Amino acid sequence: MTGPGAGKAEMGVYRGYPEASRRRWRRGWKSGALAPRLEALPCAGLNPQGLKAVTLPIRDAALKGPLFHVAANVVVTANIAHGAVRGATTGQDVAKIRGFLKAKGILAAWLMVAAFASCAQAQVTFERLVNSAKEPQNWMTYSGDYSGKRFSTLDQINAKNAHTMVAKWVYQTAATGKLETSPLVVDGILYATAQDNRAFALDARTGRPIWMYQRQLPSDIRPCCGRVNRGLAILGDKVFLGTLDAHVVALDSKTGNVVWDVVAADYRTGHSFTVAPLAVKNLIVIGISGGEYGVRGFIDAYDAETGQRKWRFYTVPARGEPGNDSWEGDSWKTGGAPAWNTGTYDPITNQIFWPTGNPAPSNRGAGRAGDNLYSNSLLALNADTGKMNWYFQFTKHDQHDWDATQVPVMIDVKTPDAKTSDAAGKHLIAQADRNGFFYVLDRSTGKLLSATAYGKTTWSDTRDGEGRPIANQNASPTLEGHTVCPGALGTTNFMAPTYDPQTGLFYVTARDQCDIFSTAPQPYEAGHAFYGSAYFPSEEAEPYRGFLKAIDPATGQIKWKFEHTSPTWSGVLSTAGGLVFSGDAEGNFIAFEAASGKPLWHFQMGGAVYAAPMAFAVDGKEYVAMAAGSAIYAFGLP
Amino acid sequence: MLRPWRVGLVAFVLIGISAHATDDRNPFVGDAKAAKAGEYQFRINCALCHGLGARGGGRGPDLTRAQKKHTHSDAEMFQVISNGIPGTAMPANGTNGQGVGMTDEEIWQIITYIRSQEVKAPAKPVGNAEHGKNLFYGDANCSLCHMVEGKGGRVGPDLTGVAGSRTRAAIIDSVRNPSRRLAWGLTEATKEFPQEYESVTVVLAEGKEVKGVTLNEDSFSVQIMDTSEQIHLLEKDKLRSFQKTRQSTMPVYGADLLSDKDLDDIVAYLTSVGAK
To answer: Which CATH architecture has domain B129-154+165-177+252-274?
Structure first.
């Protein structure tokens, strides 16, 4: 592990302006003859502190003096020239600024100019994340809030006017492959990622870049399923990125410069990060990928300031720990159970809910007899310690690669079922699982309340004592191959679902596809793919079908479904405008009426969708953003 | 610290090993145990496209045919698996997003397995390709809809490369039972997207009926080629009706319409083109 400040040499790569214009900017600075070009930074509609301030568009790379570093990283207000500095500056910083201002009148004048731009960019505190509902213009976590609902209370774009929506801007990432990112927006700046660990900050009104970072990855990284990344976390003045070579990196949210860079695990043994981390309190929580390489999965929490690891929860218990006896022999050492999708957080009980993936090898149960805890499970962890409060395993002893790595959504509804206690009915957690069942649990205990098939399933005809679907004997993969539904890609996968509290419906992208599962012995070899055989499309099978489905969590019933032309990997967003947004494999971005599933508007983005939409507002105008192909699009009203 | 002569020795040994490992000779020729190991490797690395038993799958050609389009010797096969085939969906080893790929030894095992699965080409080729060509462009009417090497119709899939991706049995089946799997998995050079040539019947706003095959489709629009090769670009919500079926536009060629012998000749023609 490297300490704070490591990786300083790996500067953010700025490509927003042509080289010549950057040089001119720097020359102007040095001579003092030119005032810096003041980019009027976008501002949020809400401005709780009433600050009239702007961040200085200063690049550390261009400016060497200590003051510039200070100035570039604080909120400078109109009062600065008078000595009253608000924001996150320390007394020492203020003193430095004052001293400098006295000495350099020119800078004071510059700061005055800066001060009159109307924009507030306060630090992203844990309190702001907990109270994210108070700032609907911002989208500060992967799912938009801690509950995982991916629901925006913005309603300017609504079922009445959605048909008039237009594209506002497009940002080309130049990345190839699957663009799975879900952007963040804080105070007018959009932060997102792309393949090969690109990260960037854009003016959320125009799509113009503010900074860009791209990690120099080793040539022999071992991503399972594409060189993908699903997004960032933000806390304080940093954004946080998990990398394909299994580092966690903190970037200065204003410059893209590396603040700290720590190694979580050795990428040579198949560890990687693709997940958007989750900021909780002062911690950055992140789960490892590598279930296809026989890693031993874990969820980590790092100190956001220093990068120091505060706790690690291994998703496969070690010898002597409870649950280890669910693994045959030493199979736990290569047991998989990665944690590659972003979990959710309940501030009231201080619990993190984080789902886990398949046991390894994914398609071979021989050699790992037992339930294989805590693979394919939902874990409730104490946020401060990483200690487990409860777990629920969706698929025991999985042999079909049905990672349970779907966003677990906290929802509070009253169930009509009389047997369910009032308390249980109010604090639920719902997960549309890859195995084809929609589960509702009591989130204070992990007790299963219901499990209902929401797609084509053939693997389970029976339930255990808790009501959990249990695999049929004949569902196991065989040497010659055996058809099972859902297929290996699952009824759903990592694509983010949404829960709309207005309609009370849970919307999820679903796929009907059956695959031939076969199995074969495969010795574990560190850093090599470890599947225990594989799956194949069944050429006799019906064509695959893809849907957007609206599930009533109270009953598990499907209220409506929209059939896409083919299955899609798109996430789903719902908004208070009575809308649900999703994309399709043919490149369309579609607005649906949330109540009925009727498509109201669509836009052809020219590339398949693997990302999840989100909504934000700047200057009082609502936008919906979505990535497709290799670009990020923002849509709004004309 | 290593002394220079030791560095030299290490380098020598490494060169020796790598030279041995990338030898263009299959060390496992005819080794049944290696073929079995290769079968497992094949399932993990190749079967997604080339199918169980290497008999062809969704995207990749049948590898059980002794005559292959891109490879003949084991060494050529090793190169194709290692480096992929540019311009096709065949990726280089280790570049399919699944990590570091197979070792040389594993590649040789796979080749040994594929060899063990090969159906040896008959000593005398089945069918008369020359006669098959005459039928294709003549009495059998294939070329009304299908193109081979730039000559023929456009309503059905281009069959220039069909023998590279389908078995003889599969081609025969497509002629006898055209609706069984349409153009599922057929690779055409100009189609990045899967086109299955489903049959469509639409009634336009003004009441005119159009019958044809789908060129492409999404939830809101459809591109159709009608039987006279006119392309229709349609918005679904402006149509009076839109019906799509997986009943092929191609007529069923029963033995009464096309004898087994004539069909053999046509397949021989397609094979002679596809193997070029």
So the answer is: Orthogonal Bundle (1.10)
Pairing of strands A599-604, A588-593: antiparallel
State the distance between the two ends of chain A, measured CA to CA, in whole angstroms: 50
Record: contact B43-A520, CB cut-off 8 A: yes
Peptide bond between residue A416 and the one before it cis (omega within 30 degrees of 0):
no
Taking CB atoms and an 8 Å limit, are A224 and B99 in contact across chains?
yes
Of A222, A226, A564, nearest to B100 by CB-CB distance is A222
Domain limits of chain A?
19-115, 127-636
The count of CB pairs under 8 A between chains A and B is 82
Contacts of A531 in chain B (CB under 8 A): 44
List phi, psi (to 5°) of A621: -110, 130
| Chain A residue with Cα closest to B50 | A536
In chain B, ranges of CATH 2.30.30.100 domains: 199-245
CB A235 within 8 A of CB A247: no
B218–A226 CB contact, under 8 Å:
no
Within a 10 A sphere around the Cβ of B253, how many other Cβ atoms? 20
| CATH of the domain spanning B199-245, picked from 2.60.40.2700, 2.40.160.10, 2.30.30.100, 1.10.287.770 | 2.30.30.100
Where would I find the H helices in A252-340?
none
Min distance B124 CA to chain A CA atoms (Å): 31
CB A389 within 8 A of CB A381: yes
Cα separation, A132 vs A144, whole angstroms: 8
Is A401 known to be catalytic? yes
Q: ω into residue A361 within 30 of 0, thus cis? A: yes
How long a stretch of residues is chain B? 276
Domain B22-117 CATH superfamily: Cytochrome c-like domain (1.10.760.10)
Residue-wise pLDDT tens digits, A50-62? 333 333 333 333 3
What integer pLDDT is reported at residue A97 of this predicted model? 47
**Cβ of A319: how many Cβ atoms within 10 Å?**
10
Q: Quick one: angle between helices B168-176 and B260-274, nearest 10?
A: 130
Residue of B nearest to A546 (CA): B219
Token digits of residue A629: 């192909």
Inter-chain contact A531–B44, Cβ cutoff 8 Å? yes
Interface contact A223-B218, CB threshold 8 A? no
Whole-angstrom Cα distance, residue A400 to residue A518? 10
What is the tens place of the pLDDT at every residue in A579-600?
A: 999 999 999 999 999 999 999 9
The one catalytic residue in A60, A93, A346, A401 is A401
As a whole number of angstroms, the distance between CA A377 and CA A299 comes to 13
- The CATH class for the domain spanning A127-636 reads mainly beta
Closest alpha carbon within chain A to B218: A565
pLDDT tens per residue across span A468-494: 999 999 999 988 888 999 999 999 999
Q: Does B99 touch chain A (CB under 8 A)?
A: yes
Tell me the three-class secondary structure of A562-590, residue by residue: EEECCCCCCCEEEECCCEEEEECCCCEEE
pLDDT confidence tier of residue B42, bands split at 50, 70 and 90? confident
Pairing of strands A344-346, A351-355: antiparallel
